[in-house]
Amino acid sequence: MNKADSERMAGILESMGYQQANEELQADLVLYNTCTIRDSAEQKVYSYLGRQAQRKKKNPHLKLVIAGCVAQQEGESLLRRVPEIDLVLGPQHTNRLGTLLEQVDSGQQVVATNELHILEDITSARRESNICAWVNVIYGCNERCTYCVVPSVRGKEQSRKPSSIRKEIEQLAQLGYREITLLGQNIDAYGRDLPGITKEGRRENTLTDLLEYIHDVKGIERIRFDALCP
Ligand code: SF4
Fold first, then answer.
1. What is the pLDDT at residue 121?
2. 224 DSSP 8-state letter
3. Which domain holds residue 36?
4. 185 CA closest ligand 1 atom index
5. Closest CA to 76 of 68, 88, 90
6. Cα separation of 15 and 55, whole Å?
């Protein structure tokens, strides 16, 4: 899920005119997309941020963005720990990166971690593969498994509409993609938050209904889905 978010954010940055730097210690904008499932991953981010904060003292134009689950979990307290950060971006705000960076450009330090309805993705991701693509179908999770931080950082379940998902897959097929992996934190829950009951009283818009609805997109030869629960 984080890799898919990273691809979307890279796409947004490209559309804003940014190019990928070869070296993170030379980039004008550094964005860390973080994971909070394991403590070691979280600690690594603080050590990376420390190095960038030092750089920023000499180069005030450097922009520092921290995205992902550590950003969501720590929120504003990150700014107290590393005041050089320009933007704290929770996962639900991934698609808003461009707008939020404009606020940073106007001199603000921004924390975007409030719960919100996830906007339909209108940007093109910069995908690593030309054949396989990830497609988000549901964000968040409503379960509360005792060991898991996901519901606190990824928010409540929000399913995308079947028509939006199919449209994205059709566009990918036109671009030459042949394999799609549907993504969801708790993908079995797909559609629980969407309206729709059949005449027989069955819930519509289940994952099965979605698979039936998208299975025949011309050009797509394989559809997989990932259950991402830790
Ligand atoms: S993401 Fe999976 S493990 Fe975590 S609370 Fe939801 S169902 Fe449980």
1. 64
2. E
3. 2-112
4. 1
5. 88
6. 26
> Closest Cα to atom 4, ligand 1: which residue?
148
Give residue 216's pLDDT. 96
Matching residue, tokens 């001199």:
107
Out of 57, 84, 112, pick the residue that ends a domain.
Answer: 112
CB of residue 141 inside a 6 A radius of ligand 1: yes
Cα 100 → chain centroid: 15
Structure tokens at 4: 């898919």
Could you tell me if 139 and 202 lie in one domain?
yes
- Whether residues 6 and 102 share a domain: the answer is yes
Query: Ligand 1, from 2, 145, 153, 156: best to mutate by most atoms within 8 Å of Cβ?
Result: 145
- Distance, CA of 155 to CA of 91 (rounded, Å): 9
CB atoms within 10 A of CB 46: 16
Separation of alpha carbons 36 and 52, rounded Å? 20
Same domain, 65 and 138: no
Say what the pTM is: 0.87
* CATH for 35: 3.40.50.12160
CA of 14 to the centre of ligand 1 (A): 33
pLDDT, tens digit, for every residue of 125-153? 888 899 999 999 999 999 989 988 888 88
**Does residue 171 share a domain with residue 92?**
no
Same domain, 83 and 182: no
For the segment 20-51, what is each residue's pLDDT rounded down to a tens digit?
999 988 999 999 999 887 778 788 888 999 99
